[in-house]
Each structure stands twice: as structure tokens, then as C-alpha cells.
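Good morning,

Both structures are done.
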Amino acid sequence: MQLSSFIGKPVLSRAGERLGYVTALRFARGFSRIACLICADADEEELFLPASAVLSVADAVIVGRQRLNTPTGESSPVGRIAYLCTGEELGTVADIETGEAPLLIVGGPQGEQKIPVARAAIGETIIVYPSEKERRAAGAVVRKTPPRTPKNQTIPAKRTAAPQPDASAVRIDHANLLGRVVRRSVFDDRGRLIAQAGERVNAATIGRARRENRLLALTVNTLTEPVAPDANKPRLT
């Protein structure tokens, strides 16, 4: 069942009383089924209905008495931009098809595409991988175990500089950079701007960084805290 088959439909009680109309849906984890319906009544006040309240769906949505105080489930990714993991933009998510193998329906320059949710990392932007296995691998986080301090041993206090990201531990996965905010401006070896502090990384930003061999710098500078404008700009000699 597709999200679009619900949006805008009138919501009626079992007795035929009009309760409002459907404005949005929220989904169970993995988007295999609908978790709740977000509706608006005649006064445009929101009401929330659990999916279990739905009795039938045809020209109208017939529901039982159940109500929710707050919506449950994951918000819809409709309207978000989808990218391939290699950086190319696919288009915008236009619809969702629930079921055992849920699909994102993406509209773009190459027409409509149906993409398995299992291959997509869904966030502010959506990154699409060739397979579910590769999507899981890209999302894996390597954690380092800190060395243990022997019992009864006191570590002398000392002042240290503020911690900075360990560049050697940063995995350059440019797909995961898409949509991130640049915390510090990144420049090439000749002082030309690659990415401005405060902007969001897009495919063009990644392309410039790759050509100038600055992908690692771009990755690190989406993780560090903001500094004074252009403080890390190299000096020209």
C-alpha cells in the first residue's frame, strides 16, 4: 500500500460521522507498515489515529474509536533528496510503498525509480547503496576501547588542549558527508576555497575536495567545533 493512497482522504467514524481528513502518515521501523495516521479535523486541529483503528480504506478511511495523544512511529521521508553512495543525485522521494519489502519511490531526471528501503540510509538526506550489505557496512562505527588504568594507580592531573578528531581514525566515506554542515572552511594548497564554513556538503563539494586531494580535510572539518572565520586558511607566500 502506498502513502499517496491515504493522503487527503476523508476520515469517517463507523457511524459515518466525518472526523477530518488524512494529512500525513508515520511508519513502523523499517517502513514495512503504517504506525499511525495524522489527520486534521474541521477546525484544522490535529488528531492522531493508530493504524489499528483503521477498519477499511476505499474512497474514505473508516476508523474505530481509538485515539493517540501523540503520534508514534517514524516520520515520512517524502520530500527528502536521495543520492547514490557515489554522490550522484537520484531525485526526491515522492511516495512510499509498505509491505514485506518496502520501497521508496523516487522521482528525478531519469524518471520514477523504486528503491528498496533496505538499501537506503534514511536521514536528513537519503543515501542509496548497491545492496543491503553495503548499506550496513557503511553505517558500521568502529569503536576503540580505551586502555585500562591499573587499580590503585593515580593519573596525575595535567592540562591538555581541547580534543580534536583523530584524522587517522576518520573513515573517508564521502556518501556519509552529504548533507553535513562544514564547521571550518576547507581550502586547497593554493588557498582557494573548497567548502565554506556553515554550508552543507553536496556532491559538488565532494567533487572539488576529491580533485584537490582534500577529502580527509573535508571529513575532519565536518566533525570539529566551529572556529573563527577563515582561521584555518593557509597563508599565501
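Second structure follows.
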Amino acid sequence: MKTIIIDDEPHCVGYLHVLLQQHCPQTEVVATAGNGQEGLSIIQQFAPELVFLDVEMPVMNGFRMLEELVDIPFQLIFTTAYDRYALRAFKFSALDYLLKPIDPQELKNAVNRARKAPPIDAQQLTLLKHHIHQKNSVLSNKIAIPSLEGFTFLSLEDIVTCESESNYTKFHLKDGKNLLVSRTLGDVEDTLEGKGFFRIHKQFLINLNHVSKYVKSDGGYVVMSNNQTVAIARSRREEFVLLFGKL
């Protein structure tokens, strides 16, 4: 994969270059740039298949650079020093990132994902910018869900429950449809933290706004707005009742 690195910190560029040589032989770094303007130039010159892009850079940051592109015909991995709360924005947008300092195994995983990933959708970048800067109340309730064909953009209010299926998660939607996603339930739970979802059982994450009934008998369970019944784990019962009481 023809690869370029765009980062304003030379030591970060050098470190990533070495890691790619050592751990990702399928990549070939053909050029590097120190800001977005230089990045646009080398993208045009080298037509890369994979770009590592720092978000915060002087002159022209990563987002401004991407806005200058008519399309994005390459895979994109952000490199960032954002904290874990801002990192949730990348997950909401289904865009890949590496947290600095970059871990070699995480780099290998990200490159492998990039080789199989569908083309980037412009709406993913819009969602990412919003969730980092929290400017648009409409987009704050949107999430990008990756699929084999590309991406499905869902409103959080349309998600009733998320069910674990091994290394996949099945989204049960209010229109009766299901969506199977190649993400673990733990990863989905982390992405939706603070958005009104609750891990009621090791196998289920539920949208509290879709709870229709709480039944104490038979060990305790809830009935959702789609008539789906979900048992409450004994260890989660007290916390659920407290949360439910605040609705």
C-alpha cells in the first residue's frame, strides 16, 4: 500500500515510519508532510492508498485539509493525542485512529482494517468534526455503523437494543429491522457511553428511552418498545432501578 504520513512533529513522523517498516511490510511510505497544505500536494503527486493524518497541525489542520479534497480515494487513519472522551467521536464516525504514542500492535491492527475497509463517506467526516467540537444538536444523535456495503447512519433514538453475538453486535431497531455489525458489544457500549444506553446484561445493551415496562418477577426483566424482553443481570439490577427512577 502506497502510504504517506502527514504530521507537524518530525519525531512522530520518524517513529511511525520506523514502526511501519518493522511491523507493516505491506505498506510503503512514499512521502511525508508537515502540514495540511503540504499534505494536499503530496496526495496529488503520489495518489496514496493509505494516509496517516494528524488532526492538530499549524497552517492547515487535518480537517481543513480534508475539506479541500473533492473526494477521498484512499484509506485514512488519524493519529491523535486526544483524550478518551474525544476519541469516542472517532468511534461514532466509524473512522480509525491511533492514539499517540502509537502502539505497534494497534498499528498492525489498524493497517489490516484499512486494507478491508470500504471507501470513506463524507458524512463520516461531518459526524467526526461535530462530535469533537459538539456544534450541531442534530448530528449529536447520529452514529455511523460500518457494514460490508459501506456505512449506515443511524439516529440513536432508532436503536432499541444491542445484542452480543460473539465478536459481532446485532442492533435491534424500532422499525423492526436488525443490523449486524462487526464490533463487540463492549466496543459499542464504550462508543454509546453517556447517550442513554445501559448494559443490562452481559449480552445486552438497551436504550433506556425505549423501556416500556420493568417486571420484578422471574428474576427481573424489561419489556422494550418493540416488545422484546430482556433479562436484568442480578449484579445490574440495583443500578438499573436507580437509573430508571430518574427518567
